[in-house]
Write a structure and sequence with these properties.
- The chain is of the alpha+beta class.
- It folds into 2 domains: 228 residues, Immunoglobulins (Immunoglobulin-like, Sandwich); 28 residues, no CATH class.
- It is 18% helix and 37% strand.
- Strand 1 and strand 2 form a beta hairpin.
Length: 281
């Protein structure tokens, strides 16, 4: 009996490890459609999974073929958009030599409703700014970062981010933009006459237990924005999901700052005394 129990325990150990493996889906934190990145680092390849949305393919948008680059650097592709087939709700995005941010969009539709999930992914290869890519309409109802944080910058808690809501390429004023984070925080914001909504990211990011959070080694939360609109007998729902990091000043000691100021004062004190003596002389 003891031997049988030991064998059963050994059989369960691999299952426990698999359940906690980074490649496996974490428990759902929202019912809204998402395009979630699968953990892993690769300069030319990124893996994703779809949540709360079924799509046979995902549309990928590149920043574009035009850029001011050092002489000798050229793109391996000039395509602006292409389709990526999904398998069991998963897919991979290849940079194809083009750097900077790429836009991903998954779509599920019926005659009554259109559901869209979108996100952005950064490749560190040389490439143009995402300005033109963001300006191009990609679906009927859109949430467009205005702007999207560049490379080493991040959305951060206690700071605001601006988003443009548009329908059929035109600003959508008076629309409700819903916010939800994987920390459980929810809020809503309203777009102004120009279709822009300012989102303040909440102070709810917990310090990474290992000290190695998201990008740049800082902790971060996932968030999703959602907007809905009815037109032409159809209901439209569009989301944009991304992440925001802890406040830039979190865990930075004010005592250290005061110490450096005091040190600077001590270093400068002899100069001040010398100048006073020269003035008196």
């Amino acid at each position: 009996m003891r031997v049988f129990a030991s064998l059963m325990l050994l059989a369960l150990i691999p299952l426990a490890h698999a359940a906690g493996h980074p490649g496996h889906a974490a428990p759902a934190w929202t019912e809204l459609p998402l395009i979630e990145a699968v953990p892993g680092r690769d300069r030319a390849l990124a893996a994703f999974r779809l949540r709360n949305l079924a799509a046979d393919s995902v549309k990928a948008h590149a920043p574009g073929p035009q850029a001011r680059l050092p002489e000798g650097l050229r793109f391996q592709t000039e395509r602006l958009e292409w389709d990526i087939l999904t398998a069991a709700g998963r897919f991979q995005l290849q940079a194809g030599g083009v750097g900077n941010y790429h836009w991903l969009l998954a779509r599920e539709e019926t005659s009554e409703a259109v559901k869209v999930a979108s996100t952005a992914h950064y490749f560190s290869n040389p490439g143009p700014a995402p300005t033109a890519m963001l300006a191009r309409p990609k679906s009927e109802l859109e949430i467009v970062p205005a702007p999207l944080p560049r490379e080493h910058n991040r959305y951060r808690e206690n700071q605001e981010g601006e988003f443009l809501l548009r329908f059929q390429g035109q600003p959508l004023p008076g629309a409700t933009l819903r916010f939800a984070s994987n920390a459980g925080t929810q809020a809503s914001f309203t777009s102004d006459a120009a279709g822009r909504a300012r989102v303040r990211f909440p102070d709810d990011v917990k310090e990474a237990a290992t000290g190695h959070g998201g990008h740049g080694g800082r902790a971060s939360n996932r968030f999703v924005l959602a907007v809905e609109h009815d037109a032409g007998g159809r209901h439209y729902l569009t989301t944009f999901n991304y992440s925001y990091a802890e406040d830039a000043y979190t865990n930075r000691s004010l005592a250290w700052g005061g110490g450096f100021l005091a040190l600077g004062g001590l270093i400068g004190l002899p100069l001040i005394i010398r100048r006073k003596e020269e003035h008196r002389g």
